[in-house]
Amino acid sequence: MPDLPLAGRHALITGGGTGIGAAAAAHLSAAGAKLSLLGRRLEPLQVVAESFGGTAIQCDVTDSARIEAAFNEARGANGPIDLLIVNAGIAESVPFHKMTRDGWDRIIGTNLTAAFECSRAAIGDLLKSDNGRLVFVASVASLRGVPYAAHYAASKHGLLGLSRSLAAEYAKTNLTVNSVCPGYVDTPMTDQSVARVSQITGRSDADARSAITNMNASGRLVDPEAIGNVIAMLCLPLSRDINGAAITLDGGTSA
Ligand code: NDP
Questions:
Q1: Where are the domains of the chain?
Q2: Ligand 1 atom 21: residue of nearest CA
Q3: Ligand 1 in reach of 21 Cβ (< 6 A)
Q4: Taking a C-beta distance cutoff of 8 angstroms, is the pair 44, 17 a contact?
Q5: Domain 10-183+223-249 top-level CATH class
Q6: What digits encode the pLDDT tens for the residues 18-39?
Q7: How far apart are CA 172 and CA 194, in angstroms?
């Protein structure tokens, strides 16, 4: 274990029970990190914790008081936070003229305001670590507009702005701040998008999945493991000069 590059480091992952968060857990654990896994549903977190080790902590990241308590629970179990992976997020699609203030607040609250709150809750620890890492799971929607998801694209553009600003602000410290920007990934979030498209358009599930898959220039969904791998790479001590990056994993969509 001591030979592993992240041995002894504490990684806290929001949304760590499914999809990209679970893949990040696998790759960070393989590199030796201790894991704290946060999400609203305890059961998927426990499944990941059983597979890769770690502490499952129930936390709705839109609840500020709960974030503080959950981060303290994580510190109690695994020590100060060295690596923070801000991954929890939700997506919805709706034509702009039907978008409600509630829907806007739900998306911005989960994808952007909670990212601010989680970052602020960990920043003291991250700055004390000799290789602090903050990684945001942003999106190609951080880089371009998305029809029928203006709130989602606005939240992810904001997330990238937060990421780059913190990278610039802390450039002289041992903390790096980076974002990964995936295209459509093979996760439960995409399954939900397929179901939504199928319901709204009356297309079969297979047709809806094919339409979404073809929005990636590669014509295939991104493997969540590929994103977990890049997240773990960004956390390595050797990656200390990667700061303020927006790494696309979209099969060439944003090329
Ligand atoms: P999942 O739906 O599998 O993951 C989302 C995770 O976020 C779930 O584990 C969910 O757990 C957690 N979550 C959602 N809301 C909250 C909340 N309020 N508090 C705590 N946890 C929450 O999909 P992905 O793995 O695909 O999504 C992960 C990230 O990747 C998201 O930020 C998403 O925007 C981004 N992304 C996804 C893409 C895709 O095509 N799938 C493309 C680009 C970016 P629980 O429900 O138990 O709370």
A1: 10-183+223-249, 187-221
A2: 39
A3: yes
A4: yes
A5: alpha beta
A6: 999 999 999 999 999 999 999 9
A7: 44
